[in-house]
Amino acid sequence: MANWLEHTVQVEVDAPIDVVWGMWADLEQMPRWMKWIDSVKVLEDNPELSLWKLDTGGFNFSWRSRILKVVEHQIIQWESVDGLPNRGAIRFYDRQNSSIVKLTVGYAIPGIIGRLMDNLFLGRVVESTLQENLQRFKEYAQTGVSPLE
């Protein structure tokens, strides 16, 4: 039995919605600002599916993710179909000369790991990392320079 944890973070980016949307919609660029994401590969024969690899502190996970919903300039919603159980959505809000980017991520913690780890501590680490990732995205979107390169 798994426990699901969910986190929501957001940032305002001084860039138009077209720019912000274009960067997020290109999933393979995500490792440029997502610290733990090692790689993303969209499947050529089925672009709704992508292969993800996560690497953090010696923990390596991989999974296939399916895009469930796309509304241009508004939302990209996904869920994993195998591997690391996760789901979420990235929402976009047009503020004329800027954009709000709101990321919600949920993930399952296997029961045995959940019993060994303090979920509140794990949650704080994940949430602060997600917020840092959005901050890196903001810098990247506003300057065109990847903070991780």
Low-confidence runs: none
Q: Globular, elongated, flat, extended or rod-shaped: what is the shape?
A: globular
Q: What is the helix fraction of residues, given as a range?
A: 25-40%
Query: Topology as H/E string?
Result: EHEEEEEEHH
How many helices? The count is 3
Quantity of strands, as a count: 7
Write the layout of secondary structure elements.
Blueprint: E1 2-13, H1 17-25, E2 37-42, E3 49-56, E4 59-71, E5 75-83, E6 86-94, E7 99-110, H2 111-116, H3 119-143
What's the short version?
The protein has 149 residues and is α+β, with helices and mostly antiparallel strands.
Describe, in plain words, how this protein is organized in 3D:
The chain is α+β, with helices and mostly antiparallel strands and 149 residues long. It is built from three helices and seven strands, in the order βαββββββαα. It has a seven-stranded antiparallel beta sheet. 16% of the residues are buried.
Question: What key attributes describe this structure?
Answer:
alpha+beta; seven-stranded antiparallel β-sheet; 7 strands; globular
